[in-house]
Amino acid sequence: TPEEVAAIEAEAAREEVPKATLTKAMNALSARLEKLNMGDVNMEFIKHFTDPETGEITMDEAKYNEDLQKIIFSLDIASDGGRLGEAETINNMLSHMDHEIVHAMRDLDLINEQEWNELRRFVMRAKVPKAFTDARGQDWIKGETWFERAKRYYPERGTEGQVEEAVAEAFRANELNPSFIKEKAPKTIWGKIKNF
Q1: Closest CA to 107 of 65, 159, 74
Q2: Whole-prediction pTM value?
Q3: According to the model, what pLDDT value does residue 13 have?
Q4: Burial of 136 from C-beta contacts in 10 A (0-12 / 13-18 / 19+)
Q5: DSSP three-state, residue 112
Q6: 8-53 tens-digit pLDDT
Q7: Is the dihedral angle over the CA atoms 19, 70, 153, 53 positive or is it negative?
Q8: What is the phi/psi pair of residue 150, to 5°?
Q9: Euclidean distance between the first and final Cα of the chain, in Å?
Q10: Gap between the Cα atoms of 128 and 52, Å rounded
Q11: pLDDT, tens digit (0-9, with 9 covering 90-100), for 117-131
C-alpha cells in the first residue's frame, strides 16, 4: 500500500547518529550526572523503544530502568530520526535526562517523604507555564496544573505514577529555565539534591 511504502522510505531516510556525536553526548550527560551527584547512574543509547506487547515503535524519549539503575535514551527521538544537528541532539538528550533523573532520585531514595509530599502539593496546585510548553513544542492548556498535564500525557499510570511524572516535568522545566518555576519549595528541594 502507499502507506507502507511511505513508512519504508521514511525509515530508510533516517540517519544513524554519528559516533562522534554519541561520544560528545555521553560526555555531556556524564557531566550533568556528576553535577547532580548522580554519577553512579548508568546510561545507554538505543535506536528506539518498542511496545513489549505489540512490537511497535513508541515515541518514548528516554526511560529510567530501576533494576539496572540506568537511563536509556532513544536516539531516534533525540535526533528526530537523524535530521537534527549535533548540538540539538545533545540538548534533547540533556532535557530527557532532566526528566528521567527524578525517577532515579525517587528510586534511590534521594528525595525523602517530607520533600516528596511538598513536591506533590506543588504539582497539584502550580500551573504549567506557557513558555515551557512553547519551548518543548507541545500544546498548552490555560490553567492546567503539572499534575493535570501528567494525567493527560500518562493516562496509563496510576495517580502516584502521574505525580512522579508531573514532578519530573517540573524539574525539567526548572533546569531548562529557572524562571519557569516561581515557588521556593521545589527549588529548595532540588537545590539540596543537586548540592549534597
Answers
A1: 65
A2: 0.85
A3: 44
A4: middle
A5: coil
A6: 555 544 457 788 888 999 999 999 898 888 888 999 999 999 998 9
A7: positive
A8: -65, -40
A9: 57
A10: 32
A11: 999 999 999 999 999
DSSP-derived secondary structure letter, 84:
S
Q: Strand (E) positions, the chain?
A: 42-46, 62-65, 70-74
Handedness of CA 109, 111, 112, 116 (dihedral sign): negative
Q: Is 189 exposed, middle or buried (0-12, 13-18, 19+ CB in 10 A)?
A: buried
Q: At what angle do helices 159-176 and 113-125 cross, to 10 degrees?
A: 80
Rg (alpha carbons) of the chain, rounded to whole number: 17
Q: What pLDDT is stored for residue 12 in this prediction?
A: 46
Cβ partners under 8 Å of residue 145, min gap 6: 123, 124, 125, 126, 127, 128, 166
In terms of DSSP bridges, do strands 42-46 and 70-74 run parallel, antiparallel, or are they unpaired? parallel
**What whole-number distance in Å separates Cα of residue 148 and Cα of residue 139?**
13
Write out pLDDT tens, residues 129-171.
999 888 887 888 899 999 999 999 999 999 999 999 999 999 9
Confidence of residue 103 (pLDDT cuts 50, 70, 90): very high
- Amino acid at the residue 100: E
Q: Which three cell numbers stand for residue 23?
A: 561520544
What's the CA gap between 177 and 157, in Å, rounded?
A: 27
